[in-house]
Design goal:
alpha+beta; Coagulation Factor XIII, Chain A, domain 1; 3 domains; 5-stranded mixed β-sheet; 4-stranded antiparallel β-sheet; 50% helix; elongated
Amino acid sequence: MRWLPVLVIGLAAGWRLHELPRQSFWHDEGNTLRLVQRDVPDLLAAVRPDIHPPGYYLLLKGWTGLAGEHEFGLRTYSAFWGVLAVALTYALGARLYARAAGILAALLVAVNPLAVYYSQEARMYAQLAGLAVLGMWLLARFVSAHPARRPAWGLALALCNALGLYTHYSYPLTLLVQGLFFGGWWLAQQRPTRPMFLYAALNLLSLALFAPWLPTALDQTSGWAVQADPTPFAERLQTVLTHITYGNTAQNLGPVEVLAPLALVAVLLLPDWYPQPPGNRWRAALPLAWALAVAGGLLFSGAYREANLKFLLPGQIALALVIGRGAYLLWDVGSGSAAVPLEMLPRLISGGAFFLTLGTAYGWLDDLYSDPDFQRDDYRAIAAIIQQQAGPDDAVILNAGNQIEVFSYYYGGQAALHPLPRGLGGDDAATLAATEALLARHPRIFMIYWASEERDPNQIIKNTLDERAYSVGAAWYGNVRLLRYAVLAPPPPAPTTLSGAQFGEHITLTGYAINGTAQPGGVLGVTLFWTTAAPLDVRYKVSVQLLDSAGRLVSQHDSEPANNRALTTLWQPGEGVADNHGLPIPSNTPPGDYTLSASLYTLEPPFARLPVEGGDSLTLERISLP
């Protein structure tokens, strides 16, 4: 038994260090990096407009002085707090209940994908979870300590709580549960006066230590926009429970996966049957109250949205303690004799429910490392592509606030970087003028497109580029999209070549226009002009291809019309739709005759093409390359 906690902590460290530097920094981690690179006065000044207090950044700054300012160096600090949280979960479970209960709870925290994910991210959430469980453990030591030693434990608690307040603005939920914890103990001890006054003094000390930052905290939190989430409450509740039980990668749980941990939580309804001092049933209620406070704070404060589910980390620890205690008690009351099967029933329920819960969480752990849906935005790959393709005359637009922090960490190319919109955005006229100025000066523009609704909600930048340049490609790197544009002569407002070809029953290509120079290394701009005779209920993509004389693909651009802005289901009968496409011609393309064609195909499998003039594509031009 004595080596099991060490084994669990070792497993936790292994999962948290596994492939730690493999993924790129994403947006928020880049912001973390640039903050810790500042000197302390500048760091504090830069954090004041943010929504996070400075405690995490200050401690991380000291850590990176030893570990370095790369992915592994920054993230090992979160991994440290993640492993410490596992160790403290064991310590708290052992102090409240029994060593076995602590080991079971620690194992659930060690393997939970939500806890592992944020232990591998250079943000403050692993520190938040670690400080929350540290505070609970210190409070447990405080109330159980000899009166002579109680002030020392209390001072450690006050310092921990002050650091928690400096780490994240959700930490007061932990303070609330600590108050309930202390109140239960105080009532059970027949209301002793001295510990009550000491506990009150310790809370005042924590607040006094936080007082220098309190005006900034009030200003930051009062200006925090509360967004009403349209998700039904039952679905939100299910998401919260799934995250704190099985992690952020778990999906489509069956009835057995739901009932297994619930059976162990239900043990709270039963009386404690192991020896303990009278009046200590508050110990059983503590982690449940903690889990409810964290989950309820997210569900009912107006802060619920997918990006904030990381606030649940302390609640995940709390639920693990509830489940660990339930599994331990059921096992403890059951009989190990196979000759008495009825008395073995509690152990069968305990072992089956616990290992099903643990195994399910473990089964979802690999998705953190292998499933693209749970990989961080790959700014490292974006920077490498732009560095390879962009020249000194090109431009890079970063359309979200603070994107330049993470992108500039990886990018060493010559293209000029332009954070747009400037400032906090909101001035559409200024954003339009800045975008037009870039179109006038640069032959190619790369746009790193993410979270545009924050500073460019009217899509001024993207709409302007789509209308006045030619998209030559787009790719997703996590939740960030790299858009590439060729700037040629302005796209014509009307076709230069009439067509009239009919695609399917209702869609007509009224004509097209070709822009640019057909030569190796150049870009051929094609503008298609569409109309429909009737409303459409199917979304189609447009494919423009350049084929050699043998029908082999040389270049291609696919998108929904107008670079995904004019969906076919939104077309109105008789209205024209201008649709720009850019086809980059590889520099090693040999001389010869080539065919330019266009087709329409369904957005979903089987990607069926619409018939046109007896075939499935329309030849637009025969092109000769020198």
